[in-house]
Specification:
With 753 residues, the protein is α/β, with parallel strands linked by helices. The chain folds into 4 domains: 135 residues; 278 residues, no CATH class; 194 residues, Nucleotide cyclase, GGDEF domain (Alpha-Beta Plaits); 71 residues, no CATH class. The protein is built from 25 helices and 26 strands. The strands form 6 sheets. Strands 18, 19, 20, 21, 22, 23, 24, 25 and 26 form a 9-stranded mixed β-sheet that branches. Strands 1, 2, 3, 5, 6, 14 and 15 form a 7-stranded mixed β-sheet that branches. A 4-stranded mixed β-sheet has the order 4-10-11-12, with no helix packed on it. The two termini are 53 Å apart.
């Protein structure tokens, strides 16, 4: 039971499932560090996508360094703001939005003097009507707040004032009564959402961004404008602004942002309502435009790019008439500070110092162009599925691929998912989660890789145990590069197979004791197997007194045919030495026959799931076995097939012996005797014999029986009763008396294996 449990927990599938569960749990619960990493990937998606052009429907009128130098230091008298409203209104601006709070009365020395004179006149009991009218007119002209209120009232542009909320009581450095909070809320009543739509069974407001108290504009200005919106910002934990709050709750009402109010008036004040569910805000419906938000009523800002992508004009240029004439016609103009020291700067994916005023422009642009970043309701399910799919694909791939291919496959999945999420973001504005699915992938990869590392030695021992009896140690080291070969099944590839059999060994079993026979066979097989290993062959099996080996597998070698032939010649030499030893020990002089053939064959671990062995199957294998048997007929010791001969003819001395149709085969094959390597010394008589035999074989195939018989007899004399010449000479004599049919192709049909 313990072994079964251990095996389960060590399987790649178990590692994959564990990684999947850990990642899914982290995703559901949320881990601060990983959530921050996800935010950073969103920034990278923006940078990868690059800037996109602004629609131009919303622009900025900025208080920059140039304006401060020309108009004086900030704060300016509100008469200058009144003049700005007049100029923008006359320039055709449809909406003027102020990212500036007019919270306190304007500091005006002239007005203070007038008030002081009026107080002194009252003390002196001066009530001259002309004097009083003069003082009243002078007061009006000197009251900059009054002048700004008048400019707002006469403006053909809708003017939206900005205000902000104190989010916590601790934000105030003074106490405030509930009645004062209520009075302030009445002062920003024009920024309330006119309608709330409850969906999915919601009957009350869900948890939202909630403020403690508002900080509104002067009453005279608020009454004149009749429209306002908050300009609070909510940066993420790393200080980057990625979300813009569109809804803030204060008391029991919901209030809209400066951008929402500006766009709403720009569109002619269509229907405006907040859609809420029991879980939070679903979005904002503004006429035909639906603005998606998160549960807290925040819109994901689709940042356009660095500050330069947003149309912006210096206020001093506007006041002096140097701005383009049509720059503001039919547009939303947001007025605010951009100069260092007076502006609030925000961090965005594109810039570490962007004026906060630009945020209102980008939000307005997103709404008017409907280029929203969204996380549809199905996204969370998709993110979970992405975790499952990437973990399972990684585990599946790694369990079937080698280390290098597995790493490349994992990198392909890793990069592919990044590209997929990036393209979906750039093309459709959909925000898929990137960190958690990739985390699952990495955990799976690391887990399976570590598992592979700790189990590699066990697999190496398995490989060595499985192959140590069949191949040389250096071949085992090569096999260890890919232990996955130790599985049931195989593949077809061109190889060379060698069969070797002791001639007449069976008859000795009646003479010698079994123990002695075992010693003889052991001595023989040891020497022969050494030569197989020395020439990079793989021993497949011993069958009685026979030996079977393959060359070119499991370690591939393009020279497998040459290796087999050199192994056969080396085996012949080792057997000769053994014969001398056996002769001295008064043992039988055993000889061996070898058959070699090359061709495509099935190689691999063959057998059943319970037990298998490394082997080869196919017609080329059967032919090699037949060639070994044909040695008996021709009196030779090493025969090779024509495929092998074609591959080694330039490196070995061969004798084409005959063309034979072996038992079980319809197609005839040419057979060759492997004589020696081209570098080996050859007796002159043997070279003469090979030339004569070639002439004799040519005469034989040309049906010139007498000439062939004469040449075979000549060869027989040179090599002292060569058996193959006797066989071929007898065959010529037979054909002289009984000629073969006219369609005879020179092929001999073997009737014995």
């Amino acid at each position: 039971m313990k072994e079964t449990s251990k095996a389960f927990f060590l399987r790649p599938l178990s590692i994959t499932i564990l990684s999947l569960v850990l990642t899914a749990t982290a995703f559901i619960t949320g881990i601060s560090f990983l959530e921050l990493m996800e935010l950073k990937t969103v920034d990278l998606r923006f940078v990868s996508r690059g800037p996109i052009p602004a629609s131009g429907d919303a622009v900025m009128a900025i208080i920059d360094e140039k304006s401060l130098e020309a108009e004086g230091r900030w704060p300016w008298p509100r008469s200058k703001m009144a003049r700005l409203v007049d100029v923008l209104s006359q320039s055709g601006a449809r909406v003027i939005g102020f990212d500036i709070g007019f919270l306190d009365p304007d500091e005006n020395v002239a007005l203070k003097v007038i008030n002081a004179v009026s107080e002194k006149a009252d003390d002196l009991d001066i009530h001259d009507e002309g004097f009083m009218n003069f003082m009243g007119t002078f007061r009006e002209n000197a009251d900059n707040d009054h002048r700004l209120a008048q400019a707002i009232q006469r403006s053909r542009s809708a003017v939206v004032l900005g205000h902000f909320f104190h989010m916590r009581k601790s934000d105030l450095n003074y106490d405030i009564l509930p009645s004062e909070i209520e009075r302030r809320l009445e002062g920003i009543a024009d920024s309330r959402y006119p309608k709330i739509e409850f969906l999915d069974g919601a009957t009350d407001l869900p948890p939202l961004i909630t403020a403690f108290a508002p900080q509104g504009n002067l009453d005279i200005l608020a009454r004149s404008a009749g429209a306002s919106g908050f300009f609070n910002k909510t940066p993420d934990v790393d200080g980057v602004v990625r979300w813009a709050p569109l809804v803030i709750r204060c008391g029991d009402r919901l209030y809209s942002s400066l951008a929402i109010q500006a766009v709403w008036h720009f569109l002619g004040q269509p229907g405006l309502e907040v859609a809420v569910t029991p879980y939070g805000v679903r979005g904002i419906q503004m006429g035909k435009i639906f603005i998606p938000t998160d549960d807290w009523g925040r819109m994901a800002v689709n940042h356009l790019g660095p500050p330069a992508v947003i149309p912006q004009y210096s206020i001093t240029d506007i006041l002096s008439g140097h701005a383009p004439k049509d720059a503001f016609d039919g547009k939303i103009v947001f007025v605010g500070a951009a100069a260092m020291g007076i502006a609030d700067y925000i961090i965005t994916p594109f810039s570490a110092s962007m004026p906060g005023l630009a945020l209102h422009v980008m939000v307005s642009d997103n709404i008017l162009t409907q280029r929203f970043l969204t996380r549809p309701p199905w996204i969370r399910v998709f993110d979970i599925l992405a975790i499952f799919i990437l973990c399972l694909l990684t585990g599946f791939g790694l369990s079937r691929l080698g280390p290098l291919k597995g790493m490349l496959f994992t990198l392909f999945l890793f990069g592919g998912y990044i590209i997929f999420t990036q393209q979906l973001f750039a093309r459709s504005g959909i925000l898929l989660n990137m960190v958690y699915p990739l985390l699952g992938l990495l955990l799976t990869y690391l887990g399976v890789t570590v598992l592979s590392y700790f189990t590699e030695e066990r697999k190496r021992r398995q490989v060595k145990k499985a192959f140590s009896q069949y191949v040389a140690s250096d071949v085992i080291d090569e096999i260890l590069e890919d232990p996955a070969q130790l599985k049931l099944g195989g593949e077809v590839k061109p190889l060379t197979v060698l069969f070797s059999d002791l001639r007449g060994f069976t008859s000795y079993s009646e003479i010698y004791a079994p123990e002695e026979l075992v010693r003889i066979l052991s001595s023989y097989f040891t020497k022969m197997t050494e030569e197989v290993f020395n020439h990079h062959g793989t021993l497949l099996m011993y069958i009685g007194d026979a030996l079977m080996a393959v060359f070119g597998a499991p370690v591939e070698s393009p020279a497998h045919a040459e290796q087999a032939c050199r192994a056969a010649l080396a085996m012949r030499k080792r057997l000769f030495i053994l014969q001398l030893e056996w002769s001295a020990m008064d043992r039988p002089m055993l000889s061996a026959r070898i058959g070699i053939n090359t061709g495509p064959m099935l190689v691999g671990n063959l057998g059943s799931d319970q037990r298998f062995t490394y082997g080869v199957l196919g017609d080329p294998v059967n032919l090699a076995s037949r060639l070994e048997g044909l040695n008996k007929l021709y009196g030779t010791d090493i025969l090779i097939g024509e495929n092998t001969a074609a591959m080694v003819q330039d490196r070995f001395l061969l004798r084409e012996l005959d063309a034979v149709r072996v038992m079980g085969k319809q197609q005839a094959v040419k057979i060759f005797q492997l004589v020696a390597g081209v570098e080996d010394p050859i007796d002159p008589d043997q070279r003469l014999f090979l030339e004569i035999y070639a002439e004799a074989l040519d005469a034989y195939r040309s049906r010139r029986w007498k000439d062939a018989m004469s040449l075979f007899e000549k060869g027989r004399q040179i090599l002292k009763e060569d058996p193959s010449c006797i066989v071929m000479s007898d065959r010529c004599r037979l054909y002289l008396d009984n000629p073969p049919p006219d369609h005879w192709d020179g092929v001999y049909v073997a009737t014995h294996k």
